[in-house]
């Protein structure tokens, strides 16, 4: 049945994948013993994947971080399918299906010293039904003489076979170049050196003490700086040195001139708040600790969380706190701030200066969480243990499985769970909560999305 493959001759071997996320996924599939693990080791540049000599040993799908020519991607070693399984074709189909559904690019490995087998051909049929780019690797091409064998794999109809020796490294650089060409376009890179001071929004309803805090910071700290070399600062922003670091306080001109109350209706004030949050990386939401948390306070907190910004909630006027109110405040906080338990909380007083020195460390912690990246290996080690200990509950006789996860981005951290089907909202929240317990993310929102295989 290899004849069908010849129809494909002359067509472009690989199309560029549609972008599915900032960190692309490459799946390595093929029969057992063709050299998938060896190839994955070669791609990630270290001996981490387990090489099994026993055919039919099924490994877990393990993702690894890889890098080539400055490009980051994730390689998934799909393990071997059971050649002795009763319904072999079905097992192959399932394997190929998962690989195809979760990957941006599929690397299909064939043993060139054996040539194509009917198992390979069955897998090719599955792979070709998908729209994913497939790269055909003729592995174990250890020398030039064996390249003739590799050429015969044109018959599989997957375009040009790439002769590679995963064991000795022969041809692996060319293969990696081809993989990069097939990956979706990379996101634009911002150079860390180009970054100016960190941008902070100081927000809160009128009279919570924003101007007082800004004045306190400007007074206590050495100076309000006017400019930082090489950066342009919006005239409505202020540069303030807090805790030995220069920060850009977004849209604070009005505050410094004490004209905020005169600047119009609540509607315009809230537009201005939204604008400041949008322009900032981290927000300090000021609350008046001497008064109950109001709906307006809640709206501002929600704005920050929904904008995906890091957040410090500062209870100002702590000097006015009496023990009675103190007792009720803890319960009030549990109730009113339960949707943002991750926000860093500070109890301070702009008037007395209490705990104002805690602000800079809190901002630094929140930003560190906001930009935290969990290595894929570490993430999946944790996830595997979690879903083994607490699998998804069975619904109507079936339970979706979580296959693996990748971190799709930072600022804020975003995670993608690859699954066999949609997850219950409750289970997704459970995974999110456990993710925080394990990795922290104090002061930062975290997004978790699910990519069920189609
Ligand atoms: P997998 O089951 O597809 O993951 O295959 P492995 O990576 O475990 O490799 C199976 C066997 O093939 C091992 O003994 C490897 O050392 C060997 N092997 C892998 N790549 C090559 C290669 O390029 N050339 C040769 N000669 N042997 C290889
Ligand atoms: P803004 O509208 O948020 O800028 O608030 P202001 O800074 O104008 O402060 C409103 C009122 O609260 C003023 O009368 C301040 O003196 C007072 N205030 C601000 N911070 C504190 C504080 O920490 N303790 C006390 N007791 N009063 C404060």
UniProtKB/TrEMBL annotation:
Residues 24-187, 198-371 form the EngA-type G domain. Associates with the 50S ribosomal subunit. SUPFAM superfamilies: P-loop containing nucleoside triphosphate hydrolases. It comes from Plantactinospora siamensis. Keywords: GTP-binding, Nucleotide-binding, Repeat, Ribosome biogenesis. GTP 2 binds at residues 204-211, 251-255, 316-319. PANTHER family: GTPASE DER. This is GTPase Der. It comes from the Bacteria. Pfam families: KH_dom-like, MMR_HSR1. The keyword GTP-binding applies. InterPro entries: AAA+_ATPase, G_ENGA, GTP-bd, GTPase_Der, KH_dom-like, KH_dom-like_a/b, P-loop_NTPase, Small_GTP-bd. SMART domains: AAA. GTPase that plays an essential role in the late steps of ribosome biogenesis. Belongs to the TRAFAC class TrmE-Era-EngA-EngB-Septin-like GTPase superfamily. EngA (Der) GTPase family. The keyword RNA-binding does not apply.
